[in-house]
Hints:
About 40% of the residues lie in helices and about 20% in strands. It is an alpha/beta fold and about 475 residues long. Helix 1 packs parallel to helix 8 (about 205-215). The protein is globular. NADP nicotinamide-adenine-dinucleotide phosphate binds near residues 207, 226 and 235.
Amino acid sequence: MKRYLMYINGQFVPARGAKWFPVYDPSTEEILAEVPDAGPEDVDAAVAAARDAFEKGAWSKMTAQDRGRILFRMAEKLRSQAAALAKLETRNCGKPIAESEYDIADAATCFEYYGGLATKVMGQVNPVPANALCLSMREPVGVAGQIIPWNYPLLMAAWKLAPALAAGCCCVLKPAEQTPLTALEFARWFEEVGLPPGTVNLVTGFGETAGAPLAVHPQVNKVAFTGSVEVGRKIARAAADSLKRVTLELGGKSPNIFFADADFETAIDGALFGVFINQGEVCSAGSRILVERKIYTKFTEAMSAKAKTIRLGSPLERETKMGPLVSKEQYERVTSYLEIGKREAKLCAGGGRPSGFGKGFYVEPTVFCDVDNRARVAREEIFGPVAAVIPFENESEAIRIANDTHYGLAAAVWSRDIFKAFRVVKAMRAGIVWVNTMQPTYVEAPWGGYKQSGYGRELGPWGIEEYLETKQVFVNLDEAPIGWY
Ligand code: NAP
Ligand code: MG
């Protein structure tokens, strides 16, 4: 069994307390590796390294061109190591290998995008009514603390690191306790690609002991978090004392709305893909499937029948379309919702552990029909392969049900009537709305939530903005005496 070290100030190190914890392969339930169990003193060391690197300027004062080139090299490394990284990702989090391959390529694209954007961060001249030159210039916010979940381990690390580095920030990243391995593998090349020591630090550990000290640390200027609403609230509170900047991406209970005039076969595939991709462990999962009454029975029958054909198996096998959930904890959480759902609604597919799986945290793709939007399975984020199908009578009812949630990350609408589809787009209180598709995500476009799905935006130019300060520079050009004294 492999023991990994974490990465602080350009060195691979154990935790100061010399403690370790196991990470698992969720398809076999076997231990895959051990990683350092970091505590507050390790977080202090990582933040001190990032602070020092930031103040000395090896990264923050490097030219934007040079920073961009290093980000391109990071992307190249990801691409050249993609096969091994994808395999490790799949073994650690259970997603089908094809999805891991896609994620690693996407992570590389993210570094390429921000490598290019590094040289496009520009200031401006402000037309003030004075004999002066009034400028605004952009500067890195400083040290960024970044806390990420287990559903897209390396891709979430890329979403956090790439824009921060492009902006000139130094980073301390805490991967999820379940899935730290691909980020640690990636760190092996940080020195070779040219990242100065302290620019990126990786601290492995648990939320309470490693995440919380990072969120509260006075030397951290900004916290970027992706995960649950519950922890998001804790992060915002922890960050309040030192008034650090905060961005939160907190998931959802996203509506996927099907009108009777949508192409039927595509709609069924879109409903399944929207909710079951990545075992349903997706912040933007289309977990509330709203279907117009006219096609409701036909739709639920076709969807349930097809859900039963989704192939579960070892995620390393190419034929597998759904792997195990990430952990025992998540398995227990999701299966407890299956019992809740059976009391609240009609079970139309799945509903338990698939037969023939002795080991592994497998759950059948599950479809609950005739769900009331007030039911727990329609309100609470389950983060597993569980769909709640809800009928609606007309457009206004669809809009009302869709927006009747504390969340507001994503929504999708399926119709061949562009007037109707666009009316629904405008009515949705959500940060992302898809039309006649669900889930495609591109680094060029903004990502983030309304309402309790969080605040701030990742990706595109919005993503780098969150890591930049704005400085006004006012240059007096008038040699006349100043003031009235
Ligand atoms: P989580 O508890 O929100 O964890 C996300 C990250 O925050 C992890 O790195 C976690 O560390 C860390 N963390 C936990 N407590 C913390 C604290 N007090 N201060 C600072 N950091 C802390 O999510 P989870 O436990 O992995 O999953 C629980 C539920 O969250 C899921 O069922 C799902 O509903 C939701 N979730 C949403 C997303 C999303 O993309 N929006 C992603 C994952 C989970 P540890 O891993 O060590 O706990
Ligand atoms: Mg947790």
